[in-house]
Write a structure and sequence with these properties.
about 260 residues; alpha/beta; Rossmann fold; four-stranded antiparallel β-sheet; 9 helices; globular; binds adenosine-5'-triphosphate; membrane; ABC_transporter-like_ATP-bd; iron
Length: about 260
Amino acid sequence: MQVKQLTYAYPNQNRGVTQLTFAINPGTMTAIIGPNGSGKSTLFKLLARELQPDSGTIELEQQPITHFSAKEYARKVAVVHQHNQLYDDISVLDLVRFGQLPYHSLLAEPDDAQIKPILDYLELTALQQQSMNQLSGGQQQRVWLAMALAQQPEYLLLDEPTTYLDLHFQASFMELLAKLNRELHLTIVMILHDLNQALHFSQRVIMLADGRIVAGGTPETVLTPPHLQDVFRINTELVTTKQGQFIVQLPTTTTAD
Ligand SMILES: Nc1ncnc2c1ncn2[C@@H]1O[C@H](COP(=O)(O)OP(=O)(O)OP(=O)(O)O)[C@@H](O)[C@H]1O
């Protein structure tokens, strides 16, 4: 996926994103990070075709993404939003079946042979007849991911996928994404707020500020204390442990006794 000079401003505003250029290489995990209001969600909506750019292009397989029909695009790119809303009560199985819509007409019988391994993979088989509103937030998040996988996409876009999960589920959800990337070769693009998740789970980080890319590259080159100071206005230190390196946020001011 190639993003070239992508620019979007909300109506009557000059805010949004400006002149974004970057590539998402197949088979990689990319983290999009930046402070509040830096343009992450706007970029996400442009990649998901929920907004149309004012100028610039997004290309997939050397074609502008506008050339794909909605169904064609859904077979290539699946989106997991941060705030998923359900208007009706629905079972886990029925919701995951919706992921197959890009392959079938509405009247076609669901193909549960394809769904079953996905439910097994995400440890949802025992929950498949349960109603969504009986599940915890972490379980629901796995079901939305299962629905996205039922689209059999090549690209998976995730907007702050771990925001509502407790620390245990945050860690296991990120491990799961890494497994999907490794085993199914899914290309993953995710908005993250947690800098250590970006450090440990991405090969590439795109750092936004004021709607522009201020740094892009490997996590080690982008997530440096000077960059984090400039962009997030936080004081950090990279600490090396037996488990690898971690970004630790330090107090911004020190009080003399
Ligand atoms: N619907 C909208 N109408 C007008 N301006 C908007 C709208 N949505 C976002 N903006 C503005 O566009 C800019 C980028 O916002 P965006 O939501 O993309 O940031 P973000 O990085 O996702 O922020 P956050 O971390 O708070 O979710 C901000 O200045 C914001 O105020």
